[in-house]
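Handout, page 2. Input:
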Amino acid sequence: MPNPENLKMPQKGEVRNPDGRPKGSRNRSTIVREWLDVIRKAENPFNKEKVEMTVADQLVLAQISKGLKGDTQAFNTLMDSGFGKLKETVENQVEIKRTKIQWGDKEIEI
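Output:
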């Protein structure tokens, strides 16, 4: 049985979880996106030139390099990311046969 005290709406200004996450703190996904957008100088693995690119670009190039070396998991990750995951479809066919039965003095179809 739920505690009726927990079912009441909080009053204006009332804090129900005073030890909760502080205001202004960032989500993990926000922090990751910020770090992936950092620009730094790195070597392009294909033409060996030093260029400025984001960390996200460097990680994608690393996956491509691994895929070119035969890493099938890296290839699958790139394909899923670029073209979406393949969806497996299953077809089911059900054949329903109707039959008649005697129910008392009535005949019914099921």
